[in-house]
Each structure stands twice: as C-alpha cells, then as structure tokens.
Design a protein that fits this description.
about 260 residues; binds NADP nicotinamide-adenine-dinucleotide phosphate; 8 helices; single chain; 10-stranded mixed β-sheet
Length: about 260
C-alpha cells in the first residue's frame, strides 16, 4: 500500500494507524461518525447483492484497522442480514490499538422489525464486554424484542421510529464516541441527511459493475444545504492510499 496523497510519498510503508486515527473526542466535543464503504469504479455499492465482490486485500486490511480503532460499529439490519454479520474480531497486529478498551468493539444493529436470528452468531456469540447492541423502537414486535434481549443489549431509541440522530446519541450516551458506520446505504442516507457523517472512508474498486446496483449512500432526503463550498455535504480529501488498482480515500467533512 502506498500513500499517494498528500505527497510526496515517504520511503517506508505508510503509518496506517496514524493515518486513520480518530480526532481527540474531547476536542471534537461530540461523537465522531466515520462511514466506511467500498464502491465499484462506476459507483455501485454491491455486486450480486454483496460488497464482497468489490473487495481486495488492502481494503480488507483497512476494514480490519477501522474496526480496531472504533469504539462501536453501527450497521443497518439490512446489511447485517445480507452480509451475515458476526461479532467483530481484531487481528493480533492491531490488538495494541484496543489498549484500555474491550478487545473488540461491539456491533450495534439498527432495526425496526427485529428480523434478526436470536441464536445466530451476531447475537449469541458476541464476547463479554462487547455484547451486540440492538437499537430499535418501542413499537418493535414485543416477542422478538424479548428474544433479542436474551442475548443482546436492546436500546429503545424512539417510540415509533428511531432517527439517525437518536441512534448516534444513544451510543454516545453509553460512552461510544468513535462510531464506525459500515452501512448500508440506507442507514448512511439517514446519517447524511441529518448531517451526522464526519468522515467517509471509501475504497474505489477496479470493477465496472453496471446493472442496477445502488450507490453507497441512498435515501429519500438529500444532504441539507447541498454540496456547495461551505455546505454540510462538502468534503475535504484527507488522504489517498493506492494498492494495485485499488484507491482507498479518506474524506472529512469540510470544517470538521
Ligand atoms: N459497498 C459497501 O461497502 C456496503 C456496505 C454495507 C452494505 N452494503 C450492501 O448494501 C445492501 C444493504 O443495504 P441497505 O441500504 O438495504 O441496508 P441497511 O441500511 O444496512 O439496512 C436497512 C435496514 O436497517 C434498518 N434500519 C435502517 N434505518 C433504520 C431506522 N432509522 N430505524 C430502524 N431501523 C432502521 C431496517 O431494518 P429492519 O428491516 O430490520 O427494520 C432497514 O430495513 C447489501 O447489498 C449490502 O451488501 C454495501
């Protein structure tokens, strides 16, 4: 992997953990939401309904690093189901990044219907100290809620629905300041519409997907204020890594 922006590239391998370090949460004064996604060169978020067909070794390396750095991993139930989510595992080479914290970050799943397998690995096999969190609404089916609560920590984030802001603030109120949002596109769409995405880490995969696959951020509501020079949709490029034909870009919200 080579750092190609900002340049000039140093002689040795890039300091990946330094490049992706979160800003000091105390200085930020609020939780920091980092969205992490991969897309094809023509903008598709999935191939045959999964993101795996887009990935490569460098992307998997950064995916693991971002998990090691995170306080909590926030994901929509659609992605948890499609991608068969399991509890996170942190590779030995990144274990030092967890000093003073549980060995792995918990996964927090946002779901209204609670169509989650209570006996499946995501809920039933999470390690102590990183139990899976399920964020849902008061109106979720009561029987499913009771079943899910046997294995996971259930957070009620609203009466009939959970807004993206309520989900983020529920995690922040439990001490999670470094929030890694791994999608999917509809969850990210809500976060973007609420101006809650501080950072976007996106891998551009050397693939033409074509077809009808959606984008990495989708939803009915556009980013408020649009992408104008000072609008909340405006990003600044923090760095670009290259690995073979893959580009790994980190953007921060302008002014953040
Ligand atoms: N390219 C990438 O990096 C990447 C990353 C992630 C996912 N993906 C792909 O994206 C696809 C899935 O995308 P998606 O947009 O449908 O999934 P998503 O955003 O992960 O999930 C949508 C689901 O999340 C729950 N949800 C979202 N917002 C909610 C809210 N405010 N309150 C309560 N529940 C909420 C709902 O679950 P319930 O139905 O349980 O109520 C909703 O059906 C898959 O093909 C996956 O492979 C790609």
């Amino acid at each position: 992997m080579r750092l190609i922006y900002p340049g000039p590239a140093g002689a040795g391998p890039p300091d990946l953990a330094g490049l992706y370090a979160y800003p000091d949460p105390a200085a930020a004064g609020r939780p920091w939401v980092r969205a992490s996604m991969i897309e094809s060169a023509d903008g598709a978020a999935a191939v045959d309904g999964l993101s795996g067909g887009l990935g490569g070794p460098a992307d998997r390396e950064i995916f693991g690093l971002l998990r090691a750095l995170a306080g909590v991993i926030l994901v929509g139930a659609g992605t948890a189901r499609a991608e068969a989510y399991r509890p996170a595992r942190v590779a030995a080479r990144w274990a030092a990044l967890r000093a003073g914290r549980p060995g792995t970050p918990p996964i927090a799943v946002l779901s209204g219907r609670l169509d989650l397998d209570p006996a499946g690995p995501l809920l039933a096999e999470a390690p102590d100290g990183a139990r899976t969190i399920v964020i849902t609404a008061e109106s979720a089916p009561a029987a499913r809620r009771a079943e899910v609560a046997r294995h996971a920590d259930v957070i009620i984030g609203g009466e009939h629905e959970v807004s993206a802001a309520a989900a983020v603030s529920a995690l922040a109120s439990r001490g999670y300041r470094e929030i890694l949002a791994e999608g999917g596109p509809h969850l990210l769409g809500q976060l973007a519409a609420a101006s809650l995405i501080d950072e976007l880490c996106v891998t551009i995969s050397p693939v033409l997907a074509g077809g009808a696959a959606g984008r990495i951020i989708q939803g009915a509501a556009p980013v408020p204020g649009g992408p104008g020079p000072a609008g909340p949709g405006r990003l600044t490029l923090a760095h670009v890594l290259a690995d073979g034909d893959y580009l790994l870009c980190r953007y921060a919200r302008a002014g953040s």
